[in-house]
Amino acid sequence: MSRFQQTLEPSIIRHRMRSTVRIATAPKPKGDNRDTDERGIGREPRRTFTGAIGAICMFPLRAIIAACVKLRIHPNILTFVGVLINVLAAYALGAGRFLLAGIIMIVANIFDFIDGKVAVQLHLQSRFGAFWDSTLDRFSDLALLVGLIYLYAKLGRTDYVLVAALTLIFSIMTSYARARAESLVEKCKVGFMERPERIVLFMIGAFTNRMAAVLWVILVLSILAVANRIYYTYLALNGLPMPRRDGVGGLFWRAFFWTDERTTIPYDLWVIAILAFVWLTPPDWLRDPMAHGPGLVGWIAARIGLGT
To answer: How many other CB atoms sit within 10 Å of the CB of residue 7?
Structure first.
C-alpha cells in the first residue's frame, strides 16, 4: 500500500462511517428540517418574547392540525396547497396589493407549518416527504420574490429589482449551503436568517408597507448566513475549533456567527433590532418604491417639536 493510500484510507473510513450512520438512522419526519430541528422549533416554547408569540399562535394551529388528522388529509397535499396559495400571494405582491398578499401568506404558511406535524400524527413520515417539502419550499420562496421583482420592474425601479434579485439569490443559497454542507458534516444550522424568519418578515413588510426595509434586512442577513455556513463547514471539515463566545471578541462572534437557538434571549434581541430597523427607518431614507414619508421616527420628532 502506498503512503498516499495509507493517508487517505482513514478519512475514507470515517466518511463511510458517517454515511452509514446517516443511512441507518430512521427517516426524518416530513417537514422535520423546518418543524423540529431548526434551533428549537417544535420544542416546548421558552419564556421569551418570541417563545410567547409562538405559544399563542399554536392554539389555533392545534385545532387545524387535529382537523386534518381526523380527515386524514395527506401531508404532501397540504404542502402542495400551501405552495399554490403562496403563488397567489406572489401575484398580489406583483400587483402592489401588500395587505392582501399578507393575508394570503398567513393562510399559505398555515399549510406550510402543519404538514410536518400532520405527517407525524398520521405516521406518514418518509424521506420522499421531506424531499417534497424542502423542494416546494424553494418554489414558494422564489414565487414571492419574483412577485416583488415584477412589481419593481413595473414601477421602473431598477435599483429595487436588483435588491430583490440579490435577495432571491442569497435566500436560495442559504438553503443550498446547508444542504450541501450536511452531505459532508453532521449538521450545519448556523446563520440567523432562515426560511421561517424570511416568511415572517415578508408578512410584516406586507402588513405594514415596509417591504423595502424588509428586503434589505433579508438580503444582508442572508449574505451573512451563507458566509456563516461556509466558514462553519470549513472549520468542521478541517477539525478546527469554533470561535470563542466569551469576552469582547465573543460578543462579536455571537452576534455575527449565529449559533443560538430560537426563543432565546439573544434571538429576541436580534428580532427587536430587526423590527426597530424595519419600523423606525424612514422610507425616504431607503427610497422605498411603495412607502413614502418620514416614517415613525419623523412622526415622533414632529410631535415632540423637533420636526421642521
So the answer is: 9
Q: How far apart are CA 111 and CA 114, in angstroms?
A: 5
Q: To the nearest 10°, report the CA torsion of 165, 166, 170, 176.
A: 50
CA distances from 308 to 122, 297, 301 (A): 62, 13, 9
Residue 31 identity: G
**Please, what sign has the CA dihedral across residues 188, 202, 78, 131?**
negative
Other beta carbons within 10 angstroms of residue 259's beta carbon come to: 17
Structural contact between residues 109 and 14, judged by C-beta atoms closer than 8 angstroms: no
Give residue-wise pLDDT tens across range 127-180. Answer: 999 999 999 999 999 999 999 999 999 999 999 999 999 999 999 999 999 999
CA distance 223 to 226: 5
Q: What is the dihedral of CA 99, 100, 101, 107, to 10 degrees?
A: 120
- As given in the structure block, the three cell numbers for residue 111 are 399549510
- pLDDT (tens digit per residue) in 110-131: 998 899 999 999 999 999 999 9
Percent of the chain whose pLDDT exceeds 90: 66
**How buried is residue 145: exposed, middle or buried, by Cβ count under 10 Å (0-12/13-18/19+)?**
buried
* Phi, psi of 107, rounded to the nearest 5 degrees: -60, -45
Q: Which of 102, 131, 174 is nearest to 29 (CA)?
A: 131
- How many whole angstroms separate alpha carbon 296 and alpha carbon 112? 33
